[in-house]
């Protein structure tokens, strides 16, 4: 894969920290388990779009482009769904859920995320949605792929109405690269399980499930 001038320094720092942490020279900041059994938090990462200028023109929950039933971009279409709950297990309605991830070319659609010429132009890279009355959310995206120095993952941030937010990352089950990932391996087995997606065949008739064969589900609990 060619060098990406926009994020080369970020990758060099990440790989250097990873090498030092493997030797025990630099302790990396651990994930934080939320109080009351909430979902463990993880870093937003360097490619979270913190303002409108860093976001794509479209920011809806459908990150894919189709021509009829034909996927225009690269990757495996994925229906991502789940629920947002409070620490007591009650659904949180109208919570804002944001996701972002690299495209199938391992490029983030962010000003610092890679050369624009290498981006998949048919992948949105970022999307957001509001939860329904039962706390459920829906996205159409791609199955995450490895990124230099990282195992496949999807970033997610949830902000509830009235304040309070969670940022974390979601991982694939039985992914060989998980064991060597410098963030995933800091998690306890229980925390790893909480952040691991459940995969299965798509059976939903939700509009965002159309064109996908794989469904990923999760449950996010805010403290």
Structural class: mainly beta
Strand order of the largest sheet: 8-5-12-11
Q: Write down the domain tally.
A: 1
The shape, in one word, is globular
- What percent of the residues sit in helical stretches (DSSP H or I)? under 10%
Separation of termini?
Answer: 41 Å
How does the major sheet shape up? 4 strands, mixed
Q: Mind telling me which CATH architecture this is? A: Sandwich
Total strands: 12
Average pLDDT across residues?
Answer: 87
Task: Report on this structure.
- A hairpin with a 3-residue loop joins β1 (32-34) and β2.
- The model is unreliable at 1-6 and 15-35 (pLDDT under 50).
- By secondary structure, the chain is mostly beta strands.
- The strands form four sheets. The protein has a four-stranded mixed β-sheet, with no helix packed on it. The protein has a four-stranded antiparallel β-sheet with strand order 7-6-9-10, with no helix packed on it. Strands 1-2 form a two-stranded antiparallel ribbon.
- The chain has helices at residues 8-22, 189-194, and strands at 32-34, 38-41, 66-67, 70-71, 77-86, 96-100, 126-130, 136-142, 153-159, 165-171, 198-201, 214-222.
